[in-house]
Design goal:
Length: 343
């Protein structure tokens, strides 16, 4: 059932107050502080309806209400609708003549964003020159198992254990090693994808049953070789929130920031605009009490990385969405002007 204007006003009032105070809010407080034009009793009934609909929660029977993840989502979606075709009403004088390494420029902007927002910011650095596979070696360890060894042109070595659905004669490993090195070693990602999709199964002939394992492993190795560095700034800001005065909860947050592999997935762009994940919407259990606001930065329209803000679900979404929108646009413009002829 869609929310009428009265319920929307009450929901926005609860969210606004909770963002500022971190305390449950009751109907009398809303009636006094917000010019909604309704009695406390009417507001109480509407809040009960909002709770039944899943937009509000009551942490204790005697307490007021707080927003649920569904309530935050409704609030955020209404904010994002205003940003689709409009620039935010604020701007920062952050452009300057910069001669620096690419990563340092991105880190500078992430640092500025952390200082402005008083939140933890994370940035996914691009790999402009990804490693290429120099050599592949398949090593049999059992009749239905092999080690898939990958060596890159920069000396990185990765190995994977493949479990096959059928036994494989050891005599075919020389053929497989020669085939994969001829078709993959030193080749571009585009050429490798074409080989995997169009030619590999046909070339394997009777051994096509191992094609899926080989393809999945090669794609996984390519993905891992392209994984980027993660930079975090403003990590101590989380301690400014009452929710994280608890040492156990704070420790879990800092452990999360140390998990670069998880953050790499969290920052993977899913839409070409500002993306907000609220509490339970995050797929990782470690993120269930947190919200993430992320967006991409670009060079001449090409996405090269992601910047995100991480904090408790009780964050000022309107302010943070505005600020990350401005900063990533500034960063994209600066990078495009500096690296116009290089990328």
């Amino acid at each position: 059932m869609p929310l009428d204007d009265r319920k929307k006003k009450i929901l926005y009032a609860v969210i606004t107050d909770y963002i500022m105070t971190a305390e449950p809010i009751g109907s009398r407080t809303i009636a006094k502080k917000y010019n909604i034009g309704l009695s406390s009793a009417t507001i109480r009934n509407e809040m009960a309806d909002l709770e039944e609909m899943g937009y509000l929660e009551q942490p204790h029977t005697s307490a007021g209400r707080i927003p649920s993840d569904k309530g935050y989502r409704f609030y955020v979606d209404s904010i994002l609708r205003n940003y689709i075709n409009n620039d935010p009403p604020i701007s920062y004088n952050t452009r300057e003549e910069i001669i620096a390494e690419f990563d340092e420029i991105v880190k500078k902007y992430a640092r500025i964003l952390a200082n402005i927002t008083h939140h933890t910011t994370v940035a996914k650095m691009p790999k402009l020159n990804p490693d290429r596979i120099k050599k592949i070696q398949l090593i049999p360890v059992a009749s239905n198992k092999m080690i898939f060894l990958v060596v890159t042109d920069t000396g990185i070595v990765k190995n994977y254990l493949l479990n096959l659905c059928q036994n494989v004669d050891r005599t075919i490993f020389e053929f497989l090693n020669n085939l994969l090195n001829e078709k993959i070693a030193g080749k571009s990602e585009k050429d490798i994808f074409e080989f995997l999709q169009q030619d590999l199964r046909q070339m394997l002939g009777e051994m096509a049953f191992i094609a899926d394992e080989l393809i999945n492993t090669i794609l996984l190795s390519l993905k891992q070789l392209q994984e980027t560095d993660i930079y975090a700034d403003g990590t101590s800001h989380i301690l400014d929130f009452p929710e994280y005065k608890d040492l156990g909860k704070a420790k879990n947050f800092f452990n999360l920031l140390d998990n670069k592999s998880l953050l790499n997935e969290v920052l993977e762009p899913e839409v070409d605009f500002i993306d907000v994940r609220i509490g339970s919407e995050n797929k990782f259990e470690e993120m269930k009490d947190l919200s993430v606001i992320k967006t991409t930065y670009k060079i001449n329209g090409r996405v090269v990385g992601t910047i995100g803000i991480i904090g408790p679900t009780r964050m000022d979404y309107r302010k943070l969405i505005s600020e990350i929108n401005v900063m990533t646009k500034e960063l994209s413009n600066l990078l495009s002007s500096i690296y116009n002829d290089e990328i």
